[in-house]
UniProtKB/TrEMBL annotation:
Family matches, as Gene3D superfamilies: Decaprenyl diphosphate synthase-like (3.40.1180.10)
Subunit details: Homodimer.
Organism: Latilactobacillus fuchuensis
Co-factor note (free text): Binds 2 magnesium ions per subunit.
Pfam families listed in its UniProt record: Prenyltransf
NCBIfam families, per database record: PRK14830.1 (NF011405), uppS (TIGR00055)
EC number: 2.5.1.-
Catalytic residues in the record: D27, N75 (proton acceptor)
Gene (UniProt): uppS
Stated name of the protein: Isoprenyl transferase
Source organism superkingdom: Bacteria
GO annotation, cellular component aspect: cytosol
Keywords attached to this entry: Magnesium, Metal-binding, Transferase
Function: Catalyzes the condensation of isopentenyl diphosphate (IPP) with allylic pyrophosphates generating different type of terpenoids.
SUPFAM superfamilies: Undecaprenyl diphosphate synthase
């Protein structure tokens, strides 16, 4: 576990070995709130504030893509009030933080089944992407109403359609082509995260980026998402930098 590794780590990050794409499962908002005898949505609000903090930290460390799991295709199972609150978060987040995101030169992207979101959430996502489209810095990529099996299903359907129509040859279906058809396809060479972090002590993937994390380093930290500070983030990067990545070969 992370806390056991923490003490042994040196303090400086190698700037030449910062993961280019970091993906985060932002878990533990509800437990963070419960610990403080607050309603669950207070945890989501604190989580939203932390998105801004970690976005800046990632951008300043030289991360190229930060993908955040904000709402999964399974999160609709939550009580209506909570779902309603979560759907309002992008509206509030982009409403409040857009000037800072622009000042930070961050480009916002939103991937997932966006058509199924309430109109106001879709609009907030579209506006954020349009307002930051000219920015050339880090891509802040929200996974919103995203599920990896849903993503793979859509990609397979589209590949099948394109094969039937003659647009692609079945023999041309390889790793690269499949990557292009997934929702992360627009990220090109950065589509696969080098590092996946999950907060809150849970150690599962929960239908996130199943194809893309084939060779990602997984780091599970104990802190709830609102407590995931830039320091804990840096420590996670240090853990990544001390991993021996072999991609199935020998070092
Ligand atoms: C998981 O914690 C968290 C979520 C389902 C929502 C994550 C959303 C945010 C952090 C805010 C996103 C911000 C924007 C701008 C879209 P949980 O509620 O499952 O926590 P628990 O496991 O302790 O109950």
């Amino acid at each position: 576990m992370f806390t056991k590794n923490k003490q042994a780590l040196p303090t400086d990050i190698d700037p030449d070995n910062v993961p280019q794409h970091v993906a985060i499962i932002m878990d533990g908002n509800g437990r963070w709130a419960k610990k403080r005898l607050m309603p669950r949505v207070a945890g989501h609000k604190a989580g939203m504030e932390n998105v801004k903090v970690i976005t800046k930290a990632a951008s300043r460390m030289g991360v190229k893509v930060l993908t955040l799991y904000a709402f999964s295709t399974e999160n609709w199972k939550r009580p209506n009030d909570e779902v309603h609150y979560l759907m309002q978060l992008p509206v509030d987040f982009f409403g409040a933080f857009m000037p800072e995101l622009i000042a930070e030169n961050v480009q916002v992207q939103v991937m997932g089944n966006l058509e199924a979101l309430p109109a106001k959430t879709q609009q907030a996502a579209r506006d954020a992407m349009a307002d930051t489209a000219q920015n050339t810095g880090m891509i802040l990529n929200f996974a919103l109403n995203y599920g990896s099996r849903d993503e793979i299903q859509q990609a397979v359907q589209q590949i099948a359609k394109d094969a039937v129509s003659g647009k692609i040859e079945p023999e041309s279906i390889d790793d690269d082509l499949i990557s292009q058809y997934l929702m992360t396809g627009f990220l090109g060479q950065y589509a696969d995260p080098e590092l996946l972090i999950r907060t809150s002590g849970e150690e599962r993937i929960s239908n996130f980026l199943l194809w893309q994390i084939a060779y990602s380093e997984l780091v599970f930290v104990d802190e709830f998402w609102p407590d995931f500070t830039p320091t804990v983030f840096e420590q996670s990067i240090l853990i990544y930098q001390h991993r021996n990545r072999r991609f199935g070969g020998l070092k």
